[in-house]
Amino acid sequence: YLDKEASANEAEYEEKCKHSSQMENLATSAERDSIKYMQIKYMEEHKDQEFLGVISGVTEFGIYVEIIENKCEGMIRARDIKDDYYVFDEKAYALIGEVSKKRYTLGDEVWIRVKNTDLIKRHLDFELVK
């Protein structure tokens, strides 16, 4: 274009840009999946150990905990917390015990143990250690 020739084909370059973005997204996804896979594989060997973790997410189904020592993240299902019936408080991002009023909220530290690992589904399930 600067040499007074015809400008580049916009549609051709638009397609190349879309393809490049799609490949970048696939690479990012593959990287995340491989990291999660290796974390679960590692945690299979540490099922009897207790770890200190930080609550990194709260949903109506349970709490996500990231282990401080190795950054592995897993879930503690609300139905598996047996000391009370826990209700999700959406505004506070917390699970709150109906009777005890005990709260599990973002940033809280908890002690966990690996309950289950599933390499195929890439799930890591934790249980609270009392």
Chain-wise SSE layout:
Blueprint: H1 10-44, E1 50-58, E2 62-67, E3 73-77, E4 86-89, E5 94-97, E6 103-105, E7 109-118, E8 123-128
Can you put this structure into words, describing what you see?
The chain is an alpha+beta fold. The protein has a domain of 89 residues: Nucleic acid-binding proteins (OB fold (Dihydrolipoamide Acetyltransferase, E2P), Beta Barrel), CATH 2.40.50.140. It is built from one helix and eight strands; from the N terminus they run αββββββββ. It has a five-stranded antiparallel sheet with strand order 3-2-1-7-8. A three-stranded antiparallel sheet has the order 4-5-6, with no helix packed on it. Strand 4 and strand 5 form a beta hairpin.
Main structural class: alpha+beta
Determine Rg (CA atoms, Å). Answer: 22 Å
Through-space gap between termini: 70 Å
Average pLDDT: 92
Write the CATH homologous superfamily of the domain at 40-128: Nucleic acid-binding proteins
Query: How many H/I helical runs?
Result: 1
The overall strand count is 8
Defining traits:
single chain, 130 residues, alpha+beta, OB fold (Dihydrolipoamide Acetyltransferase, E2P), five-stranded antiparallel beta sheet, three-stranded antiparallel beta sheet, 1 helix, elongated
What is the gist of this entry?
The protein is an alpha+beta fold. It has one helix spanning 10-44, and strands at residues 50-58, 62-67, 73-77, 86-89, 94-97, 103-105, 109-118, 123-128.
